[in-house]
Design goal:
By secondary structure, this protein is mainly beta. Helices cover about 5% and strands about 55% of the residues. It has four helices and 45 strands. It has a 22-stranded antiparallel β-barrel. Strand 16 and strand 17 (about 290-305) form a beta hairpin.
Amino acid sequence: MFRIILKKRFAVSISPSKMRLIIFFIAIANFLTLPLEAQHGQLQGKIHYQDQEPAALINILVVGTNFATQTDLNGQFGFTKLPVGQYTLIFKSITSITDSTSVSIYNNQTTTLNEFKLSKSNKELAEVQIDARRQTNYIEQLPSASLRLTMPLLETPQNISVATQQTLKDFGITGTGEMARLTSGISKKYGNDNDIAFVIRGTDATNNIFRNGVGSYWWNQQSDAFMIDRVEFVKGPAGFMIGNSEPGGLLNEVTKQPDGITTKELLLGGGSFNLIRTGFDFGGKLKTKSKWSYRAVAGLQHTQSFYDFYKAHRYFALAAARYTYCSDGFLQVEWNRMDGRFKADNSNNLSYDGANFLFPETFNFNDPYALHGIETDDNYLKISHQHKFRNGWHIKSQIADVRGLYQGDAMYVAGINQTFDTLYRQISFIDWKNGVRSAQSFIDGKFETGNSIIHHLLTGVDLGSTWVNSAWGEAGSDNWGLNNPLNIYNPVYNLDRSWTEDTAMFPATEIGTQWAAWYGQDHIKFFNKYVLTLAGRYSFTQSFASWDSMTVNDHKFTPRVGFTYLISSSSSAYFLYDQTFLPQTGRKADQTLPTPLTGSNIELGFKAEINKKLAINSSLFNTVKKNVLVQNPQTTFYEERGEITSQGFELGVIGNITKQLILNFNYTFTDAQITDDVDSSMIGFPNYGVAKNISNIMIRYKFTKGKIKGVSLGIGSQYSDQISVVWAGWTNPKDKYKALPAYALYDANVTYDYKKWSFQCNVFNLTNERVFSTGWWNSNDDPNQAYFSGNMIAPRNFRVALNYRF
């Protein structure tokens, strides 16, 4: 099916010149895959502390290069192909640089560094000059500290994939909204340059975007990619993070941290639609031997769009300071602020009748003279502490407070006339304020029960509250848009701004949830081959909604059982069963309190790491949700539906096939639909925003020798099957299988790295397709009056970025 669609698109849409361009990139990727001849050697070794304890999971950086690795649980490490020369190695724990040493690499020889002892000294090594360039790796073996897990991802019985900073750069990612293509199992639900929402494993994940472990919050302004160090995609329930959430999974953005490594970087970028990007990233220690380290990141983005009148501005700032009071402990304070301003957003109202677009690509129904626009912001403050005790146990604690707003005026399409030539526009005013406060403290460590049984225990508490205060209104005598018609083919934009300020605001409503939970997990490893994971979360929640004048108290224990078989030191297979629940509010017709949404997940998976350079992640999953609360549009009361099932397959491959050839590929099959309901017409309704088949691929080739050394060429593709655009309970059951058409897009990029400079150019939608990425179906009793509304993918466009590190 996929290949047939591709053939159709090549035959119909691609001109000979475009075909030659694509063939050129593919030819380079295939013809130049053989590594160029050079002199290389190997380095291997084993390191431990002065007390003979193996130095497990220590980062090793090769100064002046992009080579980096990490010791395994036995303190062993290796580099398979280092260019001949002399190098300084930096050994770095999670808190500070612990030691360094010099090594020499000889051609076709293996240099061994056995029994090297780390000093564990807090004293900084003044003679070591750390290169400003950071790692350009594509895989991570450990989750970030904000995920709370400290065991290697290979041993964790769950599909957790990581997109590194280098991956974000390769794809030309500028913000959170573009991250869905980086991994399997996730797609965009809606959003443009400001707030954003995702679907993960066929399940809504609007509040499941986390930042450094802080979540359950609807971000009003999405993050800028320049702030992000890496992104962790957790598929399925994540009780170790938070239990009262949708079972599909979450996305955890890890911001750039004050890790003590000297960083000085400037960004200047631009592109189509008057895109302008700029930013700076400074970090390091206050002084060479100082216990204080810092990180400061700030920047802005301005852009317009392919349709008229739209303007969007993004401002972001990050400031973080870390006090490393000893080699194994630190206290850190981090503050972020993200601001957005946008006007005349047309992204979710471009109409399509299933065969033809109803107006030109550049058309915008918004009146540029009447609107002030929308203002968004988020203020993020987090204080965290980590300490490793001499017996190997760790404690991690953090408190956070996030507050934001989404405020202003906007236009929406309220309807269309029978001849499809006139739109009716509604003017709405939004005053949305929201926030979250959270506190967590977790402790973990190892102990043995027998010679071949190792327990890795994790336990902790999680407290928090989230709230939303929302008021909205509409311009006086709006009459659902009938007073604001606009002819599609002869638009006249002349609304009086003073008239739009005659606003009738409805009373503000407030909803929120408070929670307290305990989490415990025993990760039991037998004979270094088998891992049994036994875990559970006990949660207490209190939820309220002002429009129902009710408070709902819930408590539930959600178990987690996993088994991992370590096939080798670089591959594993696992089984996982876990549960989740989500408190719900909404007045039912019989006046009884709603029961919480409950979910269960069964997962089978396989993981592999090839030479620590290429990662493979695959899984089969079956997720079931029960007691889903849905509002009945006829009665306005809420009803508990029967059962929604989401099942599918995920595959992700990322990293270096060779030193020159880099692959990022993912594929997802998802079948998510209502499988049981008191109303039989609801059975079979697919979940909104789900495509059964999604795949993404990016292939890059990097020249490592010769006159074009440092040049990389890449080509990529995005494919999406038909996307469901219906809502159970709101869409007429006769239209329950309505979907947006499938599409395939193609991208290309070129980068050039020279000393401290890095230049990149990405071209998107090479074949200039006109398709929707998200949307919904507007049902109507008259089939001739039904139509799609949606978010259109931008036509062919480009971005360039220039980075300078000094």
